[in-house]
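hi support,

uploading two proteins for the ticket. first:
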Amino acid sequence: MQKTLKIIECPRDAMQGLTTFIPTDQKINYINQLLKVGFDVLDCGSFVSSKAIPQMQDTKTVLNSISWRESQTQLLTIVANQRGAEEACQMEQVAYLGYPFSISETFQLRNTNATIANSLIRLQDIQTLCQQAQKQLVVYISMGFGNPYGDEWNVEIVQYWVDKLADMGIKIISLSDTVGVAKAETVAYLFKNLIPPYPDVEFGAHLHSRPDDWRDKLAAAVDNGCLRFDGAIKGFGGCPMAKDDLTGNMPTEKMWDYLQRQNLAPRINAQELEKSIQMAGLVFPVAEVTA
């Protein structure tokens, strides 16, 4: 039987790198609109240092102001350490905590101020907190498809860390194309070989792409068993370290259209999606997202 694919909309990832602060009221209105679409999960904020990610300093206020009880969509927030996890676990609204676990030592230090070894300890502590609070941990394997720092990367390294995470009881693992270096062939190879040994693990794809290469990456993931896909409306966001202004998140509307054509799309409200697309054009500073 065909399993249902999931679309995770990521306004947090779309917003977090912007230097222009999006007013809290605008965030609340935008997320309320996204909650009407019917996405499986909304990655809507983060409990991290406001110095590191000033755009997300109002996450708690946003969560306490949105109409989350009126939607079937579940909420996810990103954390980088135990303090952030403790704060997120106190929020009834939050169903999932996401942790960026990089298999690039350089990026792990830059992103969370911890070595991979220290990050693994943090991850175990966060997993314990999630279990106590009856929330689920989503681990993003950052630099899952390569990195620009010269750190060693190969599929065996990815396999090693997937084995480690699965042994820790992590049930959702998302491979992240952090800097947009993934090729369709690599995406296909990784999912084809990683998914079968772990029938109890839900594998996801957090792909970044250019306007001309999103389809091949998405198709490679779909065709090789991936069931969970992160995106952001209009492809906003992405990682500034990609060093390519055209590299952004996988555009949700294009992803959904592709899945529809393959008769694989999850059921969402197309009219509310269109309203969200129109609103996104008003929320995001044009000068920054088109720079």
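and the second one:
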Amino acid sequence: MSTKAATYDAEVVSRTPLTDHLVRLVLGGPGLSGFTSTGVPDEWVGLVVPGQFQSRYYTVRSWDGAELVLDVVVHDVGLVTEWARGGCVGDHVTVTEPKGSFALPGGAAWLLLVGDLTALPAMARIRETVDVPTRVWAEAPEPVADYLPGEVTWLAQEADGVSHLAEVVEGIDWPAGDGYFWMAGESAQMRAIRKHLMRDRQLPSAAYDVMGYWRSVAGRQPRAVDPRRNA
């Protein structure tokens, strides 16, 4: 017998633009009293906003036991984008149970993080919580050093949203020893990287986590394909 996943009612306590493409939403209220974080660095929740019935999924940037912080990537149009661009403070939303997939193997000597703009919230939280030598490649419209500090290789994202992360990963000079590779972004790029990791690098499945957060569709707005899109 299947068990229905828990949902939580939350109120938008504050809205803060972080960059031209990132907006921070702080959710609170008594409806979150039963919410419990998984503790997994890349955990995500589903979010249903007023006027919508379909959820979109966002990385939990932080949870302090009372307030839930989500950083939303905003576009010109979208189920959540138009709402998040406006006066959403005071609105009530529905939040689903958190889930996560990041699983650093015991004894890992290094961590490689690769992602586009939609992956920045997860990469920022992972970097804050994982204590192993870490290298980061981030593809974004502009560097966001205050958001993702430290040594980061910033890759310019093209105006049309085309990603080149697969080419970047294929050219990485990998560290010696055993480690963990985490990557998220456009779905086609992620499929190419999975093949590279399995066929060329011949990594065991426990040594990497690669997720398609969204799909590029010619002539249309990007659409979510994975429950951790942030957009």
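thanks. also noticed: DSSP finds four helices and twelve strands in the chain.
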